[in-house]
Design a protein that fits this description.
The chain is an all-alpha fold. It is 73% helix and 1% strand. A two-stranded antiparallel sheet has the order 1-2. Strand 1 and strand 2 form a beta hairpin. Helix 3 packs antiparallel against helix 10.
């Protein structure tokens, strides 16, 4: 085994408890859902069934496959951008904010820094295992969840699943959430190089101090300086707006309001460029800007880690 392989294995063993947290959460949700369904069955004499409506339209009356394809896409996209984004985001914050100060806390930094690997390999290994590894776990769980949700939907609901559209929704939303989480993880990564402990908390405390100072200056001087916290999260989440807007446009384009009533859903057709329009939301200057910032944060964090005093 090469030194780099040993380093990757060591970092994996160090962070694996944090990496599997989303697995436990998803498993817990499945167990709770199954238990709730069994409980409902027992207390309703076996009459508990799924009741699925799409925008107040009874699903059994929906015969338009284009509509089902759109729903198949939207379910996976929205699920990944909401539930998986939050769960994996929390896990990544915890992991990435300790990646470069874990050795200090365990008083073994001198040992690891004396190994026959460069500082760039050390930080690269931790970035790869802690941050990229979290995203890999997210995709694996998302893929498993897609299969489960689609099978359950096919068996227990009137939804006629379009697996190709579901896969596109999963991958596209995963890539969008990955860029946001990569930026968030990179910020926590550089915080872990600056602070010896509680890096995320100290970083948020610093941002909170700037926020308070900004609001005070705005109040006293009548200025309109943008909120640092608001601008920070708006920038991180900026890519989701493009995708969610397109989904909403396609979704509500399925209906035609006529005298306060829904139009004929059977007349809806997905645009020929539906998928290409969705995928185009990835190729923006905002996405490129975020990726360049992530690379810059990694380089800066490595230099800080390299120059930091080694703890005996």
């Amino acid at each position: 085994m090469s030194p780099l392989q040993a380093l990757l294995l060591k970092d994996y063993r160090t962070t694996k408890k944090g990496l599997v947290v989303p697995v436990y959460i998803l498993a817990g949700i499945y167990i709770f859902s199954i238990a709730a369904y069994i409980y409902a069955k027992l207390h309703t004499g076996g009459n508990a069934n799924f009741n699925m409506n799409f925008a107040d339209i009874p699903a059994p009356f929906l015969t338009n496959m284009d509509f089902h394809s759109m729903i198949s896409f939207s379910i996976q996209a929205i699920m990944f951008m909401s539930f998986f984004g939050v769960v994996v985001g929390i896990s990544m914050v915890v992991i990435s904010s300790t990646l470069l100060n874990h050795d200090i806390q365990h008083k073994c930094e001198l040992f690891h820094r004396s190994q026959p690997v460069s500082v760039w390999q050390i930080t690269g290994s931790r970035y790869l295992v802690g941050i990229i590894g979290s995203l890999a776990v997210a995709f694996a769980l998302g893929f498993i969840n897609m299969i489960v949700v689609n099978i359950v939907s096919t068996i227990a609901t009137p939804l006629r699943v379009d697996w190709w559209m579901s896969l596109n929704g999963l991958i596209l939303s995963f890539l969008h959430i990955s860029v946001a989480l990569l930026l968030l993880g990179s910020i926590c990564f550089i915080l872990s190089s600056l602070f010896k402990s509680n890096a995320f908390g100290k970083g948020m405390l610093g941002i909170g101090g700037v926020e308070i100072a900004t609001q005070i200056v705005n109040y006293l001087m009548g200025l309109k300086i943008p909120s640092p916290i608001g601008s920070f999260f708006k920038f991180i989440m900026s890519g989701f707006g493009n995708l969610s807007t397109q989904i909403q446009m396609q979704k509500y384009g399925a209906f035609t309001a006529v005298q306060g009533k829904m139009g004929d859903i059977t007349q809806f057709r997905l645009p020929a460029d539906f998928l290409s329009t969705m995928w185009s939301t990835l190729f923006t200057w905002q996405i490129l800007e975020k990726l360049l910032i992530c690379a810059a944060l990694y380089v800066i964090a490595t230099y800080i880690y390299q120059k930091r005093e080694i703890q005996q």
